[in-house]
Amino acid sequence: MADLKTWDAGGQKITIRKDLGAPMRDGVTLALDVYHGPEDKPRPALVAMSPYGKELQAQSLMLPPQRRPSPLWDGCLEAGDIARIVGEDYVHVIADLRGSGASGGVMVGNYNAGGTPLGQDAYDLIEWVAEQPWCDGNVGMVGVSYFASMQVLAAAERPPHLKAIFCSGGHYDFYETSYHGGILWFMPRAAREGRGGDSGIAVADIRSRMQAQLSPEELAARVEARLADPDVARWPNLAHILHYPKNRELWYDIILNELDGEYYEERNPITLAPNIDIPVYVQINWGRGWTVDGSIELFKALRGPRKLDLLPYPPMQERPFHEVHDDMFRWYDHWLKGIDTGVMDEPAVKVFVEGSRKWVTSPRWPLDGVEHRPLYLRPRRRLSADPEPLGPEYAAPDGFYQAPLTVTDQVETLTWATEPFAEETGMAGTGAAHLFVEIDTDDTNLILRLWDTAPDGGRQLVTTGYLKASHRELDERTTEGDPYHPHTRAVPVEPGVIEEYVVRLYPFANSFRPGHRLEVELSCDEPLADTHNSLLPPEAMHLPSGRATSHKVYRDAAHRSRLVLPFTTA
């Protein structure tokens, strides 16, 4: 029997149905809590699903929203503003995924790939919710990040009562969520283990897919191969997990899958998106380059009514998540309540342009009126629209040597900058960096960060790009200013050979005001602290290079290292 309670949220009465159980088709029961207004009547329901624990999500009734770098910011508080949802006369349903929280069953691998598909569970839960006396049969979904990814997995299963979804701040390309340009990113560890401002998964019964599928001999060979990578071997936590994976099964599997492939693709929301025919609203904040890319790819793959908002910097929404609820209720009032809110009369794409801090709208992305043009790396750390006329014997390369962070705290960085812009200069889209680099080891990281720098020295991040040098291969999707890397194999660098590396710059929109400059930084490790990183959780860093490496960057008449950027012409 469910525990029925009443909560007083500042004078607003909320009825809480605790610890309900929804049966899945294979006999597993998912645990959930239900929140709605005190009147006993059916309402549209918004369903939230994650492994982070329904009890944690109840903190939204007590904890004021926190913005990074607040130490109270918790990345797993993502199910939405319970009081606001109930106040708008919706039912808020918060469920624990199988293998987590109070739910039964086993969670296997990445988004349960290799086990029971989580989209299948979402289907069963949504249809169960639609049949309850407190639901009027109209169901949507709510929540950011993991919750948003679950919405796409659910919609791809086409449950009949799911009428629309609203995906804000989600991540959809599971490989790119874990490896940026082939470089391992630590934030998935934080979400899974509970580190650096994340509560992590409410572990009940989670299994390693690699341990289930591989023989002991195959598993030992995979572990040995990963430990042969100096980047992994010289990071104590990773070496420890590879030896002792218990209670870190999902992170263990990610470490063992450093290349893109079946592990990440089996339940890839972008691959599943063409199966979705219900209305989908996609949102993402600038500064979260890896998920901006995935959100745009998801939007482009959808087949039904769709909208895309590219939202202002900074990258991380507040926790407990409460932002963009105005947009969400305009969407759901239209699709779940039949109220004409005008949301579908507006252009499909809405873009916030940093710098000018103006909104622009468009029927599509990429925007019209964009032309990719080069800015060349020049001597004296300059960026110029004109290429270098001198050969390498006169325009000697720039360079830096990076010692491993095992022996230094200093991250070496090369910087190039434009002259101050004489007039407002806009850019919107994806970019590329073509770098001719000579490396003296078999691998390194190439990390690029572009900044809008004001005359007083203040600056804001524009976009980033990441590439593990051994992942430099491009595939057939590549066009000028829009490179793609398959990340399906690693090709060691030949030391001492000048190689062209094309780094994808994540999508952005920025208007450089008169007097401002564009600065680009190149390093193989991230600075340990700066104005951008302080806005991210402490664990949101990339695996540093474990090799002592010299980098020579050639930018002469024979090696035209350059940025290719999406200048707006309208």
TrEMBL record:
Residues 329-564 form the Xaa-Pro dipeptidyl-peptidase C-terminal domain. The keyword Thylakoid does not apply. Keywords: Hydrolase. InterPro entries: AB_hydrolase_fold, CocE/Ser_esterase, Galactose-bd-like_sf, Xaa-Pro-like_dom, Xaa-Pro_dipept_C, Xaa-Pro_dipeptidyl-ppase/CocE. The keyword Hydrolase applies. SUPFAM superfamilies: alpha/beta-Hydrolases, Galactose-binding domain-like. It comes from the Bacteria. NCBIfam families: CocE_NonD. This is Xaa-Pro dipeptidyl-peptidase C-terminal domain-containing protein. It comes from Nonomuraea monospora.
